[in-house]
Structures are given as C-alpha cells and as structure tokens.
Amino acid sequence: MNRKDRRAAQRGRGPMGPAQFERELRRVVRGDPDADPVVAAFWRDQSTEWDVAAAVDHPDGIEALRRR
What we know:
By secondary structure, the chain is an alpha+beta fold. It contains three helices and two strands, in the order αααββ.
C-alpha cells in the first residue's frame, strides 16, 4: 500500500461526484433510511434554510414547495 492509498483509507471514501450526489439526494427526499447521512444532513439544513414545506422526487428532478 503506497502513501496515497494509506491517506485515502484514513479519510474514508473520497468525495462523491455529481451523479452520485443526485442519486443520494433523491433517496433522501424519498425518505430512504439507508441514504448517505452527509447528504441527509445537507438536505435537512437546506430545507430548513429555504423553508421547504414539501418535496417530491420525479423524473425531471426534485421539486420543492416553499412556505411564503
């Protein structure tokens, strides 16, 4: 195992790409308990910040209804 591999093992997994993030975010919005906890925390923080009342996942993306 070289230095790069050791450092990667210490950090855990690397950063996720845009496609993987979108998949995980869709899982979070659908309420999947096995979704990535970091993405779930992001969605929780952002939905609070944006005052989201409801969100739904559909083929065109995620649609969120905000309170006024």
